[in-house]
TrEMBL record:
This is ECF transporter S component. Keywords: Membrane, Transmembrane, Transmembrane helix. It holds the Pfam family ECF-ribofla_trS. GO terms for cellular component: membrane. It comes from Viridibacillus arenosi FSL R5-213. The keyword Kinase does not apply.
Amino acid sequence: MQAQSTARADNYSRKRLIFSSIIIFVVIPIVMLIGVTILNDRKYNLISMIIVLLACVPFFVSFERRKPQAREILTIAVMSAISVAGRAAFIWIPAFKPVTAITAITGFAFGAEAGFLTGATSAIASNIFFGQGPWTPFQMFTWGILGFIAGLLGQKGWMKSKIALIIYGVFAGIMYSFCMDIWTVISYDGLFSWKRYLIAMSTAIPFTIVYVVSNVVFLLVLAKPIGEKLERIKVKYGMLNN
């Protein structure tokens, strides 16, 4: 009986992950593409709201046949608020922000879906202070993806060492820059050009380096203290079990 129950749980987790991946890697990019091309980046607020709603779908699906409790939703809101506050606190240093680290730490503790939602909401909420624009949906998607990947790695138990955190911090900094460069290229005329993309990447190298350094620094400083607190909350209240 126990073996059958474990097998059913594993099967459900695989189906949930497939569903979440379709929403995140297929549906949301299509919505973003429509916003950039058909709507000419003029309805970015609408696109941002749609992405938030779509980001909530995998998160709520992760609750396996039960309704999420208020404290579970509140935890994600608090982590997003910390991310926003951290981004505002370092406004004086361009590109040196703790958003990726906070998003990743949330993903490590609570899973891929929670990581994606934290990243997406952190972007749109912090841009209230930094300025909303057609870049917002891409920031939401990019930080969300980084949280999603962090959640997958955290579930595998691969993020418990400092070396792993450093590797992820480097990867996340490069990926963030590469993804945002895609928006930079498409925003010109709605078309993608490899030549313009390579130029955008080369000119963004100084910012990419800062992204990488900030990710590594904040992960090494914050991962253990915040991660331990999240784990205690998770165990105490049986929250967000994936």
